[in-house]
Every structure is written in structure tokens, then in C-alpha cells.
Amino acid sequence: MRLLLISDTHVPARARTLPDPVWREVAAADVVLHAGDWMDPALLDELQARSARLIGVFGNNDGPELRGRLPEVARAELGGVRFAVVHETGAARGRERRCDQRYPDTDVLVFGHSHIPWDSTTPRGMRLLNPGSPTDRRRQPHHTYLTAAVRGGALEQVELHRL
């Protein structure tokens, strides 16, 4: 199962649409996970139309319409791996232990907000992934997104892509 992980797209504030390489990944993915800060419901509509399956949450910059359509936390079992998606996890310091407490029944937590790519493992073995942003790099050297695969009940081939 092929996954695309994106967050903090901020369309149309930071870009009119997603970059072409991201749209190609949308077309190739079995599941797209979006960790919030969409900004415009039109992007949600377009991703829903173009994705085989979309799992998304609202972020702190998303207005009432997106908050009415998306949860704060989304959970899904994909190929035997328990995923949760959320926009914010708080400060980097103490993140692993804090997320272990908040998401005890999760194997992989996808989050956003900081626009900083993140890949770590908590003390109990949960994988924490932040794809950064494909449209608003802030102080990062590149716009980014993640791809991954689920095979045999395990997360594999986690790859950070720079745009």
C-alpha cells in the first residue's frame, strides 16, 4: 500500500495549488494523509476527487467550513498498521513521551504545524512523522512531503522528498 503524507499546504495563501510532483504522488498513492492547514475547502474537494482514499484533519489555520468537514484527529488501520493524524503535537522537546501518552493505540502518528520535517520513534516504538510543507518552507531549505509504504503489517520505505 503506497502512502503520501502532506501537511500545511496553505492553499491559496502560499500557493495557488499543490506542486505538480505532489499531484503525481496523489495519483499514485493508495492513501493520502493530510495533517491540516488546508486553508481553502476547494483543496479538500480536489484532493477527495483525485485521491483513491483521503484521510485528513483540520489545522489551526482552517476555518469553520473545514472544521465542520474534518476531525481534529483521524484514525485508520492501513494494512495492519494503526495510524493517527493530527495537526499539532506541541513543542519538539518531550514530543515522543507526550505522544506515547496521548496516542497509546497508535503505531504511526502523522502530524504537521511546524513545517519542519520530523521522523522519530517514541520510547514505546510509535513512529512520529511530519512531512513538512510542499508549499511553505518557512525557515527550512526546501519544500517537502513524505511517501511511505505499508507491507506485511509494517511501515516501510519512508522517504522525504524535497521540491
Notable characteristics:
10 strands; 32% strand; Purple Acid Phosphatase, chain A, domain 2; alpha/beta; 20% helix; five-stranded mixed β-sheet; 163 residues
Say what the CATH topology is. Answer: Purple Acid Phosphatase, chain A, domain 2
Question: Which homologous superfamily in CATH is the superfamily?
Answer: Metallo-dependent phosphatases
Into how many domains do the coordinates divide? Answer: 1
Measured distance between first and last alpha carbons: 23 Å
Lateral strand order in the biggest sheet: 3-2-1-9-10
Q: Please state the oligomeric state of the protein chains shown.
A: single chain
Q: Helices and strands: which structural class?
A: alpha/beta
CATH class: Alpha Beta
Helix content estimate = 10-25%
Mean pLDDT: 96
Radius of gyration: 14 Å
Strand content: 25-35%
Which residue ranges are poorly predicted, with pLDDT under 50 across at least 5 consecutive positions?
A: none
Number of DSSP strand runs? 10
The shape, in one word, is: globular
User: What is the architecture at the second tier of CATH?
Assistant: 4-Layer Sandwich
Largest β-sheet summary? 5 strands, mixed
Order of helices and strands: EHEHEHEEHEEEEE
Number of helices: 4
